[in-house]
Amino acid sequence: MSNRITYGLEAVRVAFRKTVESSPPEYDAPIAIPGAVRFTPTAEGDEVKFYADNIPYFVVTSNNGYSAELEMALVPDSVIAAMLGWGVDANGMLIEDANAMPKHFALMGQVQGDSKNRRFVYYDCVAARPDKEHKTKTESFEPDTDVLKLSILPIEIGGVSVVKGVMELGDTNASAYNAFFDAVTLPEPAVVSKTALDATIALAGKLLEGDYTPATWDDLAAALTAAGLVSADGDATQQAVNNANAVLQAAILALEVAGE
Question: What's the rounded Cα separation, in Å, for the pair 194 and 217?
Fold first, then answer.
């Protein structure tokens, strides 16, 4: 039975990347941070429309990851220092270094559901300095919290530009689900999909050369030829397919109507 609703945030963890250049990415062991309060990712990206026949004929939506806020009861100084490149001195004092470079990390956690808990991982996160408000004590008690502003970026894993993964316990994934927080779970290699590329090729094939300026049509024709070769290549990687699709989509969007 699948969830009908989800609620609650718990089991937050961070796993720092060993090096930014490694592909596929490699991570240190996840570090548990108790005291989850709120996680609010906001999608980043633009929608571009190509018009033909007086209608939006073709729509491309870019996925640039998320901007997010993570609110915790208290993030340990050691984790803040690692995230932001700060230091902890011999007396255990957290030192904010103005010239420090933040470290990339994966953010993991769990959202409860009415049937099954869902576990998630955002693969490439960067934190900015946390907002921290200190207030005097009054008749009512409201604890201070740490609010981290995060940039969550796409990252290439197995030839695919990936932002996050979400796993729910099923009939065939109990082992992976139970071990989810032991290490960062990377996507399993999948069969190369050319569905999106073939759909873009089909769309380009419906356009008429006489409707557009020669220069922009020549660019489209070149992109269409290249895309056709990739589509027919049985050894093409997913990244090659994705790149060919992106180039062809860009050529369609760049078409200029003749006579304008």
Answer: 24
Is residue 117 within 8 A of residue 166, CB to CB? The reply is no
Nearest to 106 by CA among 22, 6, 8, 18: 18
By three-state DSSP, how is residue 105 classified?
strand
Q: Which DSSP symbol is given to 80?
A: H
Surface-to-core class of residue 251, CB atoms within 10 Å of its CB (0-12 exposed, 13-18 middle, 19+ buried): buried
pLDDT digits (tens, 9 = 90+) for 54-85: 777 777 777 789 999 999 988 888 999 999 99
Strand partners, 94: 88
- Please measure the distance between the N-terminal and C-terminal CA atoms of the chain and give it in whole angstroms: 56
167 strand-pairing partners: 119
Residue 70 φ/ψ, nearest 5 degrees: -120, 115
With CA atoms as reference, report the closest residue to 115 among 168, 187, 155, 76. 168
pLDDT of residue 141: 66
Mean pLDDT score, 140-166: 85
CA distance 192 to 156: 15
Give the C-alpha separation, 102 to 80, whole Å: 10
